[in-house]
Amino acid sequence: MRAAQVEILNSYHVNATVMRELIESPSILQMLENNDSGLYEVQVRNHRYAGVPLMGLPLINHMTISRIRRGKQWLAPHGQTPIEYGDRIIFTADHHEDVQEIRRLLGREN
Hints:
The chain is an alpha+beta fold. The chain has a domain at 36-107: Alpha-Beta Plaits, CATH 3.30.70. Helices cover 30% and strands 21% of the residues. Strands 1-4-2-3 form a four-stranded antiparallel sheet, sandwiched between helices. It is globular. The model has no long low-confidence stretch (mean pLDDT 87).
């Protein structure tokens, strides 16, 4: 499974992570309960955005970034956090069209 890049999750660790996230960011509960928005992921494969701080990303006003996975580390983002090629961005957006455009812009290989 690891060769296929499938991440194996331990349910205890998942529950602990969710609890930690709820403590650090109580608004995540609203995101989970809201049927209009969802939690999405995109891997940055567009070199154009490598080194760009989050606040400089296109459509940043249409999404909320909750975490960034860089290698084996999880980062708590802020506006000045630079994006690196290969980062996995966990975000929410209210409109499906925005999600598609964010994934298209950041995930496009070049």
